Amino acid sequence: MAHPSFDPVTLRLFIAVCEERNIARAAEREAIVASAVSKRIAAIEAQIGAPLLVRGRRGIEPTAAGTALLRQAREVLGTMARMHAELSDFATGAQGNVRVVAAPSVLAEQLADDIGAFLQQHPKVRVSLDERVSAEIVRAVHEGTAELGVLWDLSDLSGLAQLPYRSDRLCLAAPLGHPLAARKRIAFVDAIAHVTVSVAPGGMMDRLLQREAARFGAALVNRIQVSSMDAAARIVAAGLGPAILPREAVAQHPGAAGLALVPLTDPWAERRFVCCLRNDGTVAATTKLLAEHLSRAARAA
Q1: Angle (CA) 249 250 254, round 5°
Q2: pLDDT above 70 covers what percent of the chain?
Q3: 7, 44 in Cβ contact below 8 A?
Q4: Domain residue limits, the chain
Q5: What CA–CA distance (Å, rounded) separates 247 from 249?
Q6: I want to staple 160 with a disulfide (CB 3.0 to 4.6 A). Which of 118, 129, 167, 276 is the partner?
Q7: What topology does CATH give the domain 167-270?
Q8: Which long-range contacts (CB under 8 A, 24 or more apart) does 296-299 make?
Q9: Which residues of 80-116 are buried (b: 16+ CB within 10 A; e: fewer)?
Q10: Averaged over 100-122, what is the pLDDT?
């Protein structure tokens, strides 16, 4: 059996039928006669050897094969729309779009400033920036739904190209009146019993801290759990207990003046971030340019 051929018009008509649940309404929406819509869909069904649509209680509904085609059709047309938009940008002298996904820690620190500096140098480039956890960042770059990821290098980055970015230092963030607040530095083992606030339970940093505590036969007993470093800094500043937080992120918090940031002396407390991108020859020049800019900014800092 020959492979079915799908053209953009047929895909758009199929999506319209699935959304309208009616061939006549779909044809009206797409400014085409209903018989032409039916003919195109019937041709695809004949090619794949399976029905795509059935009549249900609420009108026409996709079969299992139709549901799969609907998902793929939306992805294909979305990719084509982005392609046309980016090529149009080149035609008008712009240099394209870059989709960046970054870990919360990176976004809380200097990434926005570094990207802002890049955009000032290249005013015709557009950047979209989203926050994701590390596993989602790696998957997005592998699958091509993002061109550039910025995250902690503890992640599994197999198969991806990497450029070094910035680093930060984990510290014990404590209220100024806390007994450990006057320390210049502290080992994690001496801080374990005092840590009562955790950030993003189950996340990469939380798992690291739990693992390191277990090495000393201890466990972190977190009375308060929050989802963001901003919330953790607020909780600590309110005097509800210390937390392990990245110094560079907390130092920018409005309440930082009320906190003591005592660096951890453990080697793993210095976190290194990287820019990751695909390593298959498909990376656009603008993406490489942004990754190299971020790496240079880190070296300069």
Answers
A1: 115
A2: 94
A3: no
A4: 8-90, 92-165+271-300, 167-270
A5: 6
A6: 276
A7: D-Maltodextrin-Binding Protein; domain 2 (3.40.190)
A8: 297/110, 297/114, 297/117, 297/166, 298/164, 298/165, 298/166, 298/167, 298/273, 299/164
A9: eeeeeebeebeeeebbbbbbbbbbbbbbbbbbeebbe
A10: 92
List CB contacts of 107: < 8 A, sequence separation 6 or more: 129, 131
Query: Quick one: how far is CA 64 from the chain centroid?
Result: 30
User: What number is the average pLDDT over the span 250-263?
Assistant: 85
CA atoms within 13 A on the CB side of 201: 10
8-20 and 64-91 helices, crossing angle to 10°: 130
Strand, helix or coil for residue 144: coil
> What CATH superfamily classification does 92-165+271-300 receive?
Periplasmic binding protein-like II (3.40.190.10)
Q: 174 near 262, Cβ under 8 Å?
A: yes
- Residue type present at position 112: A
The top-level CATH class assigned to 8-90 is mainly alpha
Asked if domains 8-90 and 92-165+271-300 share a fold, the reply is no
